[in-house]
Q: What sequence folds into this?
């Protein structure tokens, strides 16, 4: 029987980028997994946590732990949300050992999508095809909190028809940063400017990343500057054929 | 955010030349560091960082012990340690000593600690001339500006700016070649060194087991500052202690590389006490002023006291995408960049500029390059939580708190979450990126307005993932 994986699509994918969730499910099914979408899922709590509202973040994190309590694997199309669950849940409940234990037990079962494909499924060629010139944006939390650097590039390199062109500022933050993007719009916008300049210099037609939040920021800046570059989540690239 | 901060940020972002100057200077420092810490250049780089972190942790957790050891060893060499609570105590000590010795002129080498306490201004207020001798600091003193960067204080000024400044303030011909500018400054400063009564320096490290002050620099001015005048005063924060001279084998290998990409700076001075009988140089009197100025408050805070591990290399500034946009002068205090964002609220109180810990995308580039592995994003998150607690106590920012309370409640009730999302989607026509355009009330919500001030919104998808999943 096929092994079951639960997907946590994240609130931003659920509401704004549903195709990313569908593409991720598609790739996982093609790899032979039985994909389960626990319908009670909402958010990981990161917006509140990063804005300093610990009590509210705790509430949402508790809900998350309840929803995914019995999942064998939780696969997430975001380095940032995965980091919230794997790295920050533990610190949220210093006064509640039961919840802390639940968080610790869940931690090894939560996987960022590309890392899951490479390390659990053990696949670096998913058989995708996409005629395109792409550049890869390292999303900060995937890169710095999980050390995800070469994996997604390897997956992209194995997509037929795809040419990967590195940008000079690949590892520089796009400037999203959650509520930072609306608390300090000018700084955030300036950072996005640096990022899209770097993207444009590659001549790529598409920017690929692991996080829809980064892509929303980059896409918004590209659209504002009327630049003909599109954004795609890695899952969407890997689901292409 | 405060109006002052907002304005400085806006001005910096709007200045294309300044943006280019900051970006280029930091890019150069980034490139130099990168080459200096490669696996071939420094195979044990990560190991050194781990050791440096452990050494700093140990020292900060046993600071009382090492302070006493340091003090005893300085005294054994004929020097004297002074403990000062704050800026006033340091200024009073220097002024008192200057009066006793009838000193007229002070030369200074670069020191963030003395910037922190406005020492020059305090001394000048009492008609005691205090001259900066580091080229960058000298330029800034002439320009009446604060350092723009911990390591490269005049990073924001071009050689043309410096040419104009020298011509205006020193009455020399406008010279735009940096080497010639250095010679102009050198001509002025040599005379100051020869005439100075007191030399004031900071300290990069204070070595407990040998009672030594360690200074690293590239210009030689710090060494002159400590040896030309009859009196040397080193002013340092109490966190500058390290236990043993051998620990320098860890820290000196990290500091230069992290700061400027240098394996070692041009000069490294080990100063332990005044000139002894039979020695031909060195000062006649040697003082180490140990400054608290808010530091002991951090010792009690196990969650954030790693902020005291900092060795002021400036790598976090160079790599910070926020610093690279807003520069050093947007920050409310002399310490800028990520390290400034975590120590300013802790030294001065979070009420000083409560928005500061929020002015970060939490990208983590700072922590990645920190040679002593300070988890700056973690400390920023702690500070954010403290700001929100303080706001709650003070009844501030009620609307935002209410919004997050409602949000959290909705996120814990999946059916209501789905209905709320569908309601939101219904006012967001999915016309190819034009959503919200027909809903002015939504468009005018401050967060939406803030977003749209810089970027477009993505096209509304029309259906959520869960709706599509059910139909699949």
A:
């Amino acid at each position: 029987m096929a092994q079951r994986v639960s997907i946590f699509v994240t609130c931003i994918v659920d509401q704004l980028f549903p195709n990313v969730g569908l593409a991720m499910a598609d790739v996982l099914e093609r790899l032979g997994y039985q994909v389960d979408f626990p319908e009670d899922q909402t958010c990981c709590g990161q917006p509140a946590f990063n804005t300093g509202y610990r009590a509210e973040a705790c509430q949402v994190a508790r809900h998350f732990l309840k929803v995914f309590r019995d999942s064998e694997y939780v696969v997430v199309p975001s380095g940032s949300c995965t980091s919230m669950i794997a790295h920050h849940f533990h610190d949220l409940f210093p006064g509640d050992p039961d919840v802390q234990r639940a968080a610790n037990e869940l931690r090894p079962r939560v996987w960022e999508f590309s890392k899951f494909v490479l390390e659990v499924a053990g696949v670096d060629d998913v058989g995708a095809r996409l005629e395109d010139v792409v550049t890869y944006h390292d999303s900060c939390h995937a890169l710095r909190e999980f050390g995800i650097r070469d994996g997604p590039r390897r997956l992209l390199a194995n997509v037929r028809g795809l040419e990967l062109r590195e940008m000079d500022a690949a590892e520089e933050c796009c400037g999203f940063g959650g509520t930072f993007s609306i608390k300090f719009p000018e700084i955030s916008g300036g950072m996005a400017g640096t990022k899209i300049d770097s993207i444009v210099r590659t001549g790529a037609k598409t920017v690929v990343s692991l996080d829809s939040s980064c892509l929303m920021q980059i896409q918004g800046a590209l659209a504002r500057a009327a630049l003909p570059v599109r954004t795609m989540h890695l899952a969407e690239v890997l689901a292409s054929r | 955010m405060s109006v002052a901060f907002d304005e400085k940020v806006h001005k910096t972002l709007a200045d294309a030349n300044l943006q280019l100057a900051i970006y280029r200077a930091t890019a150069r420092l980034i490139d130099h560091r990168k080459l200096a810490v490669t696996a071939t250049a420094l195979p044990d780089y990560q190991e050194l960082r781990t050791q440096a972190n452990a050494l700093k942790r140990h020292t900060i957790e046993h600071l009382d012990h090492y302070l006493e050891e340091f003090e005893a060893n300085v005294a054994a060499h004929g020097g004297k340690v002074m403990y000062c609570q704050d800026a006033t105590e340091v200024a009073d000590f220097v002024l008192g000593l200057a009066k006793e010795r009838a000193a007229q002129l002070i030369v200074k080498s670069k020191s963030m600690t003395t910037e922190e306490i406005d020492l020059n201004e305090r001394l000048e207020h009492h008609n005691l001339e205090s001259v900066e001798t580091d080229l960058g600091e000298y330029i800034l003193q002439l320009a009446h500006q604060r350092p723009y960067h911990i390591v490269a204080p005049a990073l924001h000024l071009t050689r043309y700016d410096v040419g104009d400044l020298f011509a205006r303030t020193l009455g020399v011909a406008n010279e735009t070649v940096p080497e010639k500018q250095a010679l102009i400054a050198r001509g002025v400063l040599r005379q100051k060194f020869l005439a100075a009564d007191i030399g004031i320096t900071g300290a990069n490290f204070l070595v407990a087991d040998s009672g030594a002050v360690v200074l690293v620099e590239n210009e030689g001015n710090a060494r002159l500052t400590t040896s030309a005048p009859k009196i040397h005063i080193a002013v340092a924060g109490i966190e500058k202690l390290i236990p043993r001279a051998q620990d320098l084998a860890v820290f000196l290998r990290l500091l230069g590389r992290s700061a400027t990409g240098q394996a070692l700076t041009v000069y490294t001075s080990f100063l332990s006490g005044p000139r002894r009988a039979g020695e031909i140089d060195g000062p006649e009197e040697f003082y180490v002023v140990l400054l608290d100025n808010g530091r002991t408050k951090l010792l009690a805070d196990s969650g954030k006291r790693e902020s005291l591990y900092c060795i002021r290399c400036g790598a976090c500034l160079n790599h910070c995408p926020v610093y690279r946009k807003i520069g050093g002068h947007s920050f409310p205090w002399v310490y800028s960049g990520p390290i400034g964002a975590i120590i300013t609220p802790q030294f001065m109180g979070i009420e000083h500029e409560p928005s500061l810990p929020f002015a970060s995308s939490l990208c983590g580039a700072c922590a990645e390059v920190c040679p002593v592995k300070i988890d700056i994003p973690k400390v920023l998150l702690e500070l954010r939580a403290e700001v929100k607690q303080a706001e709650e106590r003070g009844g501030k920012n009620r609307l935002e708190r209410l919004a997050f309370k409602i949000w959290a409640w909705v996120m814990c009730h999946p059916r209501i979450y789905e209905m709320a999302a569908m309601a939101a989607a219904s006012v967001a026509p999915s016309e190819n990126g034009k959503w919200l355009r027909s809903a002015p009330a939504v468009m005018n919500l401050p967060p939406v307005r803030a977003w749209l001030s810089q970027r477009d919104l993505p096209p509304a998808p029309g259906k959520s993932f869960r709706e599509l999943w059910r139909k699949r």
Notes: The two ends of chain B are 46 Å apart (CA to CA). Chain B has three domains: 1-36+304-396, 62-293, 413-471. The CA atoms of residues 81 and 347 of chain B lie 22 Å apart. Residues 1-36+304-396 of chain B form a domain with the Fumarate Reductase Iron-sulfur Protein; Chain B, domain 2 fold (CATH 1.10.1060).
